[in-house]
């Protein structure tokens, strides 16, 4: 009789342990499912840089560019802009415009822009680089400049740059690519022959869940009364104009979906 009681007690304990283990596994699976639904995708090591069409790549500390000697400016400038960087506005504007010592063929100079009638327009804006004095100073390399119509630079282009900073805060981070679009026979300024673009583009990728999205803008290098929203474009069209492949490391299906999109939903 005592042996039967011990066996019954042992069986009960084994059953209880089994039930607890099963319940624990179920709770763990529910937790992991919830985490997968809410967590951002792992993007460590994601190379967001575009392809090189005509230039050569120069890596600065806080942005990367592809420099085109023919036009004496970058075909694109790319960087990640985070919410923390936008909010950490600790560096004053330096205005230390200077030639880029990392351009082996020699970058455009200050003299190229003097009395040209064009602004030294930032591709990576100084306003995006206020999180450190080094980043701010780097933004004034002449390789980051492009001849911009003054009303354009101080109007709709400035508005778009401010929108980008707002979106970086709203989405935690953005990948930003900016560059010029040239006509078949662009106007030249200065002794170095700096090309004047007909248009400028800005391509944005929000690679964070729950809504991975992308948008592009193509703006004529002239005064405009419209808001940036009026110049929304698909990334596919920007690629056709420039010959640059944006975000080539995205999975093909996602790249096709994002780069054909022209909707501004989720941005404005």
Overview of this structure, please?
The chain is an alpha+beta fold and about 270 residues long. It folds into two domains: about 40 residues; about 200 residues, 3-Layer(aba) Sandwich (Extracellular Endonuclease, Chain A), CATH 3.40.570.10. The protein has eight helices and eleven strands. Strands 1-2-3-6-9-10-11 form a seven-stranded antiparallel sheet. The longest helix is centred in the N-terminal third of the chain and has 37 residues. The radius of gyration is 26 Å and the shape is globular. The termini are far apart. About 35% of the residues are buried. About 5% of the residues have low confidence.
Which helices and strands occur, and which strands form pairs?
Blueprint: H1 2-38, E1 56-59, E2 64-68, E3 73-82, H2 83-87, H3 110-113, E4 118-122, H4 133-138, E5 145-149, H5 150-153, H6 156-171, E6 173-181, E7 188-189, E8 194-195, E9 199-206, E10 213-220, E11 232-233, H7 235-242, H8 252-259
Antiparallel strand pairs: 1-2, 2-3, 3-6, 4-5, 6-9, 7-8, 9-10, 10-11
């Amino acid at each position: 009789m005592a042996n039967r009681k011990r066996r019954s007690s042992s069986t009960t304990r084994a059953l209880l342990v089994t039930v607890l283990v099963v319940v624990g596994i179920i709770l763990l699976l529910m937790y992991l499912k919830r985490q997968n639904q809410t967590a951002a995708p792992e993007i460590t090591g994601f190379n967001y840089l575009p392809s090189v069409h005509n230039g050569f790549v120069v890596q600065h500390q806080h942005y990367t560019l592809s420099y085109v000697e023919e036009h004496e400016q970058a075909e694109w400038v790319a960087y990640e802009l985070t919410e923390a960087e936008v909010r950490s506005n600790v560096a004053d504007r330096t205005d230390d415009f200077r030639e880029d010592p990392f351009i082996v063929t020699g970058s455009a100079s200050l003299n190229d822009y003097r009395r040209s009638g064009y602004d030294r327009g930032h591709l990576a804006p100084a306003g995006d680089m206020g999180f450190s004095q080094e980043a701010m100073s780097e933004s004034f390399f002449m390789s980051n400049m492009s001849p911009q119509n003054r009303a354009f630079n101080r109007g709709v282009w400035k508005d778009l740059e401010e929108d980008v900073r707002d979106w970086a805060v709203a989405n935690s981070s953005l990948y930003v690519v900016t560059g010029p679009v040239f006509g078949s026979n662009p106007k030249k300024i200065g002794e170095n022959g700096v090309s004047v673009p007909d248009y400028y583009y800005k391509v944005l990728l929000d690679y964070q869940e729950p809504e991975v999205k992308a948008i592009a803008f193509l703006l004529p290098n002239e005064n405009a009364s419209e808001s940036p929203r009026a110049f929304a474009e698909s990334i596919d069209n920007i690629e056709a104009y420039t010959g640059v492949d944006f975000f080539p490391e995205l999975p093909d299906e996602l790249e096709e979906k994002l780069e054909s999109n022209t909707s501004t939903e989720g941005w404005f």
